[in-house]
Amino acid sequence: MTKKRKRQDDFQKVKLKVGKKKPRSENATLTNFKTKTIHLPEQLKEDVTLPTNNRKLNIKDLLSQMHHYNAGVKQSALLGLKDLLSQYPYIIDAHLSNILSEVTAVFTDKDANVRLAAVQLLQFLAPQIRAEQISPFFPLALTDGSSRLRESEGLQEQKENPHATSNSIFINWKEHANDQQHIQVYENGGSQPNVSSQFRLRCLVGGLGTVDEGLSSTENLKGFIEIIIPLLIECWIEAVPPQLAASVGSGVEREPLQVMQQVLNIISLLWKLCKQHDETHKLESWLRKNYLIDFKHHFMSNFPYALKEITKQKRKETNKSIKHCTILSNNVDHLLLNLTLSDIMVSLANASTLQKDSSWIERIRKFVTETLEDGCRLNSKQLNRLLGVSWRLMQMQSNREATESLIKAVYTLYQQRGLLLPVRTLLLKFFSKIYQREELRSYRIRYRSKVLSRWLAGLPLQLAHLGSRNPELSTQLIDIIHTAAARANKELLKSLQVTALRIYDPQEGTVVVLPAESQQLLVQLVYFLPSLPADLLSRLSRCCIMGRLSASLAAMLIGILHMRSSFSGWKSSVKEWNGSVQLNISNEDYFSFLFSTLAGFSKEELTWLQSLRGVPHVVQTQLSPVLLYLTDLDQFSHHWDVTETVCHSFLVVPVRSQSFDVLQSAISKHL
User: What is d(CA 194, CA 182) in angstroms, rounded to the nearest whole number?
Assistant: First the structure.
């Protein structure tokens, strides 16, 4: 065969036949093998010189793993270091410098789990390290953390706006603190802060409730405010720079929103401290004069603020009615941020400046009203801010329509079901404060809110439904009802009359299931009822007999009913100044109540007992034809005390013969 023919044979394609299996090539890889993983929970290497944890890693190994590129390895190293130091606390003193330097380096790690593990480790170390040991490392932590945060913010800004320069937005903290450059932070006010200050960061020692001695005087407080407020405004500008202000309407990202929230929290604390010193409202006018213009420019220009959510494609739309009410991830609560800002701003306004501030106050009023009417679930912290702003707005503006709209919005929130106890308590206190404010006004200028009257009228029914399920809330309801009844509120007394049979039910009524303090207020409420019909007196008699009320409360109830009878000089009807009418008890119903309480049984029960024969509890003595019902000692002692009070009520009847005839007739008829 020629060479040319051989070359052609080398490049000829092998033809495959149908039905025949393709032959395996010579360089084919066999894949029919099986593998198994090997898990090593502990390392065999042991270092006798340094103690190790359960994974046989010493402190040098764990500290070196914090430089690993993998976030899981760094988190595991932090957790392992915490475990090692808890087992061998003496290592802390020997390696404190290395531990703090490595832990502070991962403070600003991009992985949230690594940052959380670092914080948990420092929380574990803090109680075990003395102040003089850790104080030299504060500059290290601050320098490392601030430089990394500055780098992170700069990269984020360059990513969002590559043409913007960081020099126009960010301020060098060290140069500013050393007064090496003067920066005008008030764009409208034109003032410059004086950075030479007597205030320094110090460790919090002792109770947090005491006021620092440096801020105990008004002048020191003013000086501190003049220093800290410009720095806080700078932080706000860095979080929302002017270049990005145009896009704030679509929402602010999570990190800037956190900075804004902390800035407002600090200002809010300063405002509270000012109120403690401000007896003559001089500080309030000083704060308004110095900071209102800048606050309006920086804070209120894009109010209200919302979180800019990074949504994925084809994601379902969320309910727009709760857009302000959700508490978002990483402790960013933009609703609380807006409410804190509203609280700060309304504290700078008053009734005399209402016309000047009408533009931004109306925006706050609109936001508060919409938040209340949204139907969202608010926690106690949010609601406390919300009600504080609402109360301030009501105090500033005496316009009835505006006040009524705010009260109506709060009442919409109050009508929600399943509210938590702290939330329901705050709402009750808010309405009670509004009612007391209206009552303190003179009768001529008093304005009775329709929503407030509706709220008061619904309290007795709420009390009857609530019962003993929540004694604390029931006590608050009783206090408000008692106050309104003592002031002869016509709507409340009418509602109380309708629900009296349920409240004073001897089996499951509110009066027999609550503690003694609440029972006393409910017994006193009987005096204010417009009328006392026979069926209500029958239930009150059973409450005295059954022992669900103490003997002293039963005596109080009998005394109140005696005062409502004609034998104490009560007229047939008494008309109050507000138009409500109180009717006295008829003599027949009053004597029926006294005899039922004296006998210990109602008319129906006496009839049933007399039909029984051969029952050991019912006996008849040879001295008297009267049937006796055997009771235990406690019930007998209670009934004895009640009997003494009833007998005293019979004795004070002006016509003794009349009371004797009534009593004798009742004994002959029923016993």
Answer: 9
Predicted local confidence at residue 316, as pLDDT: 46
Instruction: Give every CB contact of residue 565 below 8 A, 6+ residues apart in sequence.
Output: 584, 585, 587, 590
CB atoms within 10 A of CB 542: 21
* Coil, helix or strand at residue 582: strand
Averaged pLDDT score across all residues of the chain: 76
Given a contact cutoff of 8 angstroms between Cβ atoms, the answer to whether 543 and 642 are in contact is: no
* Short-list 500, 516, 586, CA closest to 554: 516
Residue 424 has pLDDT above 60, yes or no: yes
Look at the alpha carbons of 111, 117, 123, 125 in this order and tell me if their dihedral is positive or negative.
Answer: negative
Quote the DSSP letter at residue 210.
S
Tell me the C-alpha to C-alpha distance, in Å, between residue 33 and each of 22, 23, 27, 312. Answer: 21, 20, 17, 42
Q: 482-512 b/e with 16+ CB inside 10 Å = b?
A: ebbbeebbbbbbebbbebbebbbbbeebbbb
DSSP state of 242: G
Q: What is the pLDDT of residue 266?
A: 92
Q: How far apart are CA 239 and CA 231, in angstroms?
A: 12
SS3 618: strand
pLDDT (tens digit per residue) in 303-335: 888 877 654 444 444 444 444 444 444 456 888
Give CA–CA dist 77/42, Å, rounded. Answer: 14
Q: Please, where are the H alpha helices in 315-357? A: 334-346
| Cross-strand partners of 328 | 332
Q: 429 is written with which tokens? A: 């206190």
* Bridge partners, residue 620, by sequence: 627
| Identity at 527, one-letter amino acid code | Y
Quick: pLDDT tens for 260-302.
Answer: 889 999 999 988 888 887 666 788 888 888 888 988 888 888 8
Average pLDDT over residues 193-202: 43
- Written in H, E and C, the secondary structure of 20-76 is CCCCCCCCCCCCCCCCCCCCCCCCCCCCCCCCCCCCCCCHHHHHHHCCCCCHHHHHH
Contact 119, 109 (CB under 8 A): no
pLDDT the model gives residue 364? 92
Residue 457 has pLDDT above 60, yes or no: yes
Do residues 509 and 503 touch, judged by C-beta distance below 8 A? yes
Please say whether the beta carbons of 518 and 553 come within 8 A: no
CB 203: neighbour CB atoms within 10 A?
A: 8
Name the β-bridge partners of 628: 619
Give the C-alpha separation, 309 to 261, whole Å.
17
- Nearest to 239, CA basis, from 255, 218, 222: 255
- The helix-helix angle for 380-396 and 334-346 (nearest 10°) equals 30
- Tell whether the model's pLDDT for residue 181 goes beyond 60: no
Closest to 518 measured CA to CA, from 530, 533, 503: 503
Pairing of strands 627-629, 573-575: unpaired
Report the share of the chain in percent with pLDDT over 70. Answer: 69
Backbone φ and ψ of 444, nearest 5° = -70, -40
pLDDT of residue 534: 87
- Give which of 594, 573, 570 is closest to 658, Cα–Cα: 594
Q: Which of 479, 555, 505, 521 is nearest to 563 (CA)?
A: 555
Res 473: pLDDT:
86
pLDDT of residue 122 exceeding 70: yes
Residue 241 is predicted with a pLDDT of 72
Identify the H or E element spanning 573.
Answer: strand 573-575
